[in-house]
Amino acid sequence: MTDWSAYGNIAQATCQPERGVIKITKRKGTSKKDLTREKILNAALECFAEKGYKETTVDEIAKRANVSKGNIYWHFKSKLEIFREVIKEEAKKIHKIIEEEENDSLPLNELWKRKTEKAFAIVKKLEKQFKVFYEVAFRAWKAEESKNFFFEIEKENMDKHTKILQRELQARNLKLSKDDIEKIAKLQTLFHQAIAFRILIFQEDNESWKELKELIFLFIDILSFYIVKRGEKVEEGTA
Prior knowledge:
By secondary structure, the protein is mainly α. The chain is 73% helix and 3% strand. Helix 1 packs across helix 6 and helix 4 packs parallel to helix 7. Residues 1-19 and 22-26 have low confidence and may be disordered.
C-alpha cells in the first residue's frame, strides 16, 4: 500500500489496507462521487505499480477499490484514461509537497537545495509513483498514443516549473526574458527526469545517493549563479 503519511497535509484521503482493498476516510464536504473516484485512482496506482499497465486489468482495479466494474466505467472511459489520471493526480501531489518549502528570504540556490533535501526525504515513500511515471516513458517508445501522452505530461511539468520560477524570481527582484525563463524551465524538467530515473535505479545505494545529491547541488549553484547574473543584465538593459 502507498504510505500516504509521506504526503503530510497533502493527503486528503486515508488509504487503509484490508485484505488488499482500498478504503478512504470520508472528509467533510466531499461527495460520494469524488470519494469513489479517489478510491479507483488509489487502487489503480497500486495495481499499475505492482504489475505494470499492460498486465493490470480493470477487474483487478475494481476488486482493489471494492467497487463494481460498471462503477469504474461510469467514472472513466477506459483503462488508459485511468492511467492518465493516476499520473496527473500523483504529479500534482508531488509538486505541492515540494512547493511547501517556498521561502522568499532565502537565496535562490539555498531555496532549491532545501527543496532537494525535502525531495530526498520523501522519495523512498514514492517508489510506486516513480514506477508508474517511468512506465509512461518506456511505453512511449512503442506507441504513438503513449508518446503523445508523455509529451503532454512533460509540457504540464514545464508550465508548472515556469510559473514557480517566475514567482521565485519576482520575490527576489530578478527579471529574465520570457525566452530565458522558458528555456530554464525546460532544463529543470529534463534534469528532474534524469534525477528521478537514477533514484529509481539506485534506491538502496547510499553512496550513489550521496554522489547524486552533490551533483544536484552543483547544478543548482551553477544555474542560480547564471540566473542572478543574467537577471542583473536584463534589469540594466531595461532600466
